[in-house]
């Protein structure tokens, strides 16, 4: 049985999960795939603190260069995260003809062009299933299972922290701050949760999915991104009354040679499968030109689910090594040197339905003033909810749902409406996704 030697950079939570799989299931894997995976070396800045997985001290080093330059190591697993020194170490390993497995979504979203091109030029493979949606095999699904399809649309819940917060706000009627504290207490949110709640984490993941789904380079700055920090229990309650649930949704929709690419809070019909994804789980609803709808659901983070995704890539690459091949399945395109850039629809040109909540003074004629401005911008109102009447004439919630309208027109109309003397505070806008 052939030995394939592996080096691990990053011995944190996910790295510990990878080590546990090597230790607990290594013999089972060898029997199933006919290859003996050998974990030779582990690098981390901290090699003293106790871990859930014990390894002999001689396997540990604080110098990751020992791994990327070791001629016996075939596969390097990078789990340190961040841009540097991860980028330099990965490029050095690639230059030394070592295959790479990484969960580093930020690095791939920002510097994927450089890394994928280097790997192709050096004839090594890169596995990055764990970079998006944890244990869910979405990369493999897009690259292999759906390769005969044109991807018409992709809707994804790809940040477990935000989904947990929105779930608690919906089911337990918590405000954002309380739900966030609960997520932090359970370990679902970092001490600084900004990358999760402002959408940056999910935006990185969406950029990776777009590059795989459409086989092109992606300008991450062209992806519209909006987090969940402004969502209130009041809006979640109104959404439920209207038959929707609020989700932080990654959206890709093919539009005549271009693609809508956006990440924002979204009202999803309560009977849609993705609306029923709760807590820290992730899900993806993908529509292919031939396959129609495919729904993937699973844990999007955590030690063992993510380690499972890492090891699936290690095994795939080990199989290629045993057959003396690489590049059988391109990372995203057969020719990385001449890869075109994905044409992304500007957000101002996107057309969708909208939920808009105003705090309006309880006076006669308010609705007609707002409706008149919407009509000026050719925005059609689908329904209106007006709550309560205040004896003192103070502000009350006024909720409107629109038919499909252009983002530019809606934003211009809201700019004009919020300057009315009958409107108190900023209007709340949440886009609606009605796609089957």
Structural description of this entry:
This protein is an alpha/beta fold. It has three domains: 2-134 and 303-338, Rossmann fold, CATH 3.40.50.720; 138-299, Dihydrodipicolinate Reductase, domain 2, CATH 3.30.360.10; 347-432, 2-Layer Sandwich (Alpha-Beta Plaits), CATH 3.30.70.260. Helix content is 35%, strand content 25%. It is built from 13 helices and 17 strands. The chain has helices spanning 13-33, 65-68, 86-95, 105-121, 138-145, 160-171, 176-185, 194-197, 200-214, 233-241, 303-323, 366-376, 407-417; strands at 2-9, 35-43, 60-61, 75-78, 99-102, 126-127, 151-157, 224-225, 244-255, 258-269, 281-288, 292-299, 351-361, 381-386, 395-402, 405-406, 428-432. The strands form two sheets. Strands 7, 8, 9, 10, 11, 12, 13, 14, 15, 16 and 17 form an eleven-stranded mixed sheet that branches.
Low-confidence stretches: none
The largest sheet, given as strand count, sense and whether it forms a barrel, is:
11 strands, mixed
Number of beta-strand segments: 17
Shape: elongated
Helix/sheet category: alpha/beta
In short:
With 436 residues, the protein is an alpha/beta fold. It has helices at residues 13-33, 65-68, 86-95, 105-121, 138-145, 160-171, 176-185, 194-197, 200-214, 233-241, 303-323, 366-376, 407-417; strands at 2-9, 35-43, 60-61, 75-78, 99-102, 126-127, 151-157, 224-225, 244-255, 258-269, 281-288, 292-299, 351-361, 381-386, 395-402, 405-406, 428-432.
Which SSEs are present, and which pair or pack?
Elements lengths: L1 E8 L3 H21 L1 E9 L16 E2 L3 H4 L6 E4 L7 H10 L3 E4 L2 H17 L4 E2 L10 H8 L5 E7 L2 H12 L4 H10 L8 H4 L2 H15 L9 E2 L7 H9 L2 E12 L2 E12 L11 E8 L3 E8 L3 H21 L27 E11 L4 H11 L4 E6 L8 E8 L2 E2 H11 L10 E5 L4
Parallel strand pairs: 1-2, 1-4, 2-3, 4-5, 5-6, 8-10, 10-17
Antiparallel strand pairs: 7-9, 7-11, 9-10, 11-12, 13-15, 13-16, 13-17, 14-15
Helix pairs in contact: 1-11, 3-4, 4-9, 6-7, 12-13
